[in-house]
Structure formats: C-alpha cells, structure tokens
Amino acid sequence: MTQSLSHTSNLLEQSTPDDTWDNADLIIAYLKLLKVDYIFGVPGGAIEPLYNAIARNQKTNGPKIIVARHESGAAFMAEGYARETGKLGVCCATTGPGTTNLLTGVASAYADNVPMLVITAQTPLPKFGKNALQESSCTAIDTVGIFRYCTTYNTLVSHSEQINTKLVAAIMSAFRLPNGPSHLSIPSDILRQKASELPALNPSQLVNNVTFTDNIAISTLVDMLSNSQRIALFLGRDCGKAIKAIIEFAELTNAAITTGPAAKRWVDCFHPQYYGVFGFAGHESAENALLDDAVDTIVAIGAQISELGTNGWSESLLSKKLVHIDEIQEHFSRTPMAKHHLCGDLQVIFQQLNNDIKQGIKWGKTWKSPMSSKQHFLEKKAICGPQIKLNLPTSCYSDALPLKPQRVVTEFAKHIPAEYRLHFDAGNIWAWFTHYHHSSNTLGHYHIAMGFGSMGWAIGAAVGNCIGSGKPSVCFTGDGSYLMAGQEITVALQHNLPVVYVVFNDSALGMVKHGQKLGGAEQIGYALPIINYAKIADAMGIEGIQVRTIDELMAIDWQRLGDKKGPTMIDLTIDPSEVPPMGQRVKGLANQSATPGG
Ligand SMILES: Cc1ncc(C[n+]2csc(CCOP(=O)(O)OP(=O)(O)O)c2C)c(N)n1
User: Fold this and answer.
1) What is the pTM of this model?
2) 598 CA to middle of ligand 1, Å?
3) Nearest Cα residue to atom 21 of ligand 1
C-alpha cells in the first residue's frame, strides 16, 4: 500500500489545544495530519464524544463522517477508501452490538492487508463489571478480546495519558508490513477527558516504513537466471507498486506471465506474454505455462500463496522450480520447497534485476519464449473494426435468454469506461469475472477481496472507493449478497455518489447451489425468492434499470451513469443454469470433505 503524506505543521497549529480540546479532538487532529478526509461508522451513545469532535472540527477541515446502515458496511467502506487512496481507512462504532457488527469488515481488511484504524467506544471506566448497558469490558462481552485475531494492534485505552502513545502505535502498526487494521477500544469517559498533549506523529515517517532489500539474495538470483533457459512468472496481489519494472523483467527474459485472481488487475490481459489466471476460476493456459517441462524457473512475486490464488496450493506452482520474491517474510513460510527466497522492496529488486539482465543480454544471454508453439490464451482471431475479435467460448457471444453470465461479463469488459472502479462480491461473481473479464486496463481499478471472502464486501467498498476517488464505481454482486447488505446503496443516494450496483439475479445463493451440484452434495438451502431489485431501488428514489435482453444490456449508458449524481441499480436476470468455472475449488473442497461453496 503506498501513500503520499507530507509533514503538515500548519495543521498542528490549527489544532492547538484549548479548554475545550478533549481526547476525541486529539484523535481527529491525528487524522487531519494523515489527511484522512472521511470516517465511516454508525453512531450511538458511547461513541458520541467522537462524533461531537468530528462536528467541532468541520470548521478546520476535519474529516467528515459517513454514516453507514450497518457497521460492517462502514468497515467495508473504510477499506474501499483505503484501497483507493493509500491512506488510512477509518471506521468507528459504539459499544456492544455496534462493535460486534464491525467485526466482519475488520476481519476482511485484516485478511487482505488493508491499513485501517478502528475506533470503538468502550463502557465508561466506573461502570466496568457492573452489567452496564452494552457492556464491552474485559469481564463482559469483551470487545478487545473479540478483535484479537483480526487486528495488527489491539488495545484498551485505560488511562487518558495512554492515548497519544497508543494512537501512534495503532497508526504505525496499520501501515507496517503486512498492512492491516489496528483497534483502539476507548471508554467514553476517556474520549471526553481533556487532552493534555499535541499529536506526536510526523506523518512523513510513515513512508519510511519499508522493507530492507537483501542484495546478496539478488546476486544469487541473477546467477540462477543466467543459468536458466525458460522462465514463467506468477504475479500475486502485492506486485502493484512495482508492476512496470516486473513487466519489463518479463519482457527482457521472455517469461510467460500468469497471475493470481486478485493480481490480474495489474496486467494487460492482451499482453502477448500473458497466459491468464492461475488459481480459482483461472485459465488452463496459465496452468500449462507453469507446467511446461522446458520452464526451469517459476518466479512468484508479491504473492501471499493463499488457497484461492494457488488452486489449493497446487504443485504446478509450488515446486522445486520456484523462486519467491516478496516484501513480507511471513509469505515464505508457505513456499518452503522454493529454491530461492528473496525479501525486499519489489521496486528496488526489479530495478536491480533489470539492470543486471540488460548487462547479461549485452553479453549474449537469451531466454526461450514461452511455449512458442501455442497461441496467446485469448487467441486473437481477426480484427473487426476497432474491436479485436477474440476466440472466446461461444457462450461469450450468445444471444440466448435468459442472458448468459459469460456474455454479460464480456460486454461489461468492453463497455465500462476505464475510469470506473470495479468491485466484485463473493459468490459466482468472482468466478465469472476472473475467467471472462478481459481488459487492457492495467490501472489497478479491479478490486476483489478474496482473503476473508465476505458477501456484501463490494457493496460497501464501492461506496468508500467512490468517496476516496471522486470517480464512478460499480459493484457487481449477487442477489443473496444484496439482500444481506444492500441497504448501503442509500448511503450513495444520501451523498449523491455515482455508484452503479449490478445485481446478478438468479434467485439463488448461486455459488452454494452450483458448488453443491459440482461436488455431488445434497441440494439444500440455496433458493431465494424472485425479487425485482430495480423496483426496490425505485421505491428509494434511485434509478432502477431492468436488464433482461441483449438490447437492454447494450443500452446501458455507462457514461451517463458515471456522470450522474447518485447511484443506479441494474437488476440483471442471468441464466441460473450456467455453471461457473470453479471446478478446481470444488475438487479441493471435496478432497477435504467440506461442503462446497465460498
Ligand atoms: C458473510 C458470508 N456468509 C456466507 C458466505 C458463504 N457464501 C459464499 S458465496 C455464497 C452465495 C452468494 O450468493 P449470491 O450473493 O446470490 O451470489 P451468486 O453466487 O449467486 O453469484 C455464500 C452463502 C460468505 N462468503 N460470506
């Protein structure tokens, strides 16, 4: 996660404490220093002091509050905001149920390593242990205990004097690799107490929080590469910041490029060396590129080595041919079979590697092209006007009704303008877009949360992203997820945000239904009622569009929807019988005798 922060002493001056300055003001002063413009949450009695401080600080450019409909939505919004801006995502909740509602969203940010500050109100100190309303102290429903396993830093602020130190620790911990959420549980009486100190953080120090680079390991790798004949790459989620240098490396070494599902956002799918996604709902061509006997070195870069990213830790990737390059040492614990580990800043490593390789090329070193006898995985067939005609499966060109998800996704890839930020919810959406969404947009505007995999993530994240980017965003979600978390659309309504919701309507928890079928399990618990989501939107004063036919699909005016001040709901009926390309995942689950599904 990158960020651009500068030391802003003028903000400190604007925030000089006076008689009314309390600890909640101190928190806001830190957020101003970090140039955080928004806090996401749901109010309640115990967190009121923070809301009061937010209100007081509006005159001095303090962060604004965005009130979500559910606290998990607030956390997803904070995640969407952080992913887009590189700043800290901040969310807050009141004691008890407010805080427990926040949990799934915080866990999601933890699993996907998104920097976040989570502030929850705690029972006032004098009421600890007395069965107070919504008591969240250590002898009740202990919210610090509950957050223990999904935060990088997690503490109760038990004395006013701790707040400065703990805020600094929380912020720095959120930005330390691997990034993640920090949680401060602050009793409401401490939030109200007079603050005695100024913020003690120089924000420019945060950007210095980088990994050291192992120069000896770089030299070893250069030797290995000079003895290698054919290379394949596997790009993981975290290679965004160095993607230009990595692609240059691929081009210099003629390496086949494959990505995990979350990393396809960094790569031009039409790049001649791209072989597609390896991992959940990926492409056979990517697997073949890694399995190619002539490949002697597979380089995994910025890859967590998660289940979905590796087809269930498949040996096609995790073999003795592997070299693993990463900024996070912990990731190496999942590649003990690798012939080489290289830890460090990816940008520094690939600049160095590229310089050395250019020298090698000058001396006559070459690498063989990837699977030269095979065509590109999208196999360009012919040029039809400005559009490249791709040899995609026939379902991608089908006019049949109900609409085929493959056709719908193919059209979306062609027609949604590049400035849109795309968000994909858990469910079959993951599979359809991973497999069939081919775009040359390498701007990283393709967001998927495959760590915790919560339904409803995209519904909130699309709002937070739109707030952070000022650009239109789109949320692709299933009807089950929308029924679970869809009321957040009204946040986009309230704040005039151009967020387009596309509900893939199959009247089912589709991934569960197809997972059960593919795994030969009993068919149970997946059915949903027939609902017209465009009509629900209509009742909320939101433009609702029904898409049932090809003509209606092609008539969606993405430019207009993106220029609009407010959300749109597209209710898209898809063919519920189409089987998503997730066979590998089902096989993996079947081997572990678990129930298929996300
Ligand atoms: C909060 C949560 N509950 C349950 C699951 C398990 N799960 C994964 S996908 C899925 C079904 C999603 O259905 P829907 O949103 O309609 O999308 P579809 O699969 O039909 O595209 C379920 C229940 C989950 N991932 N997250």
Assistant:
1) 0.94
2) 6
3) 428
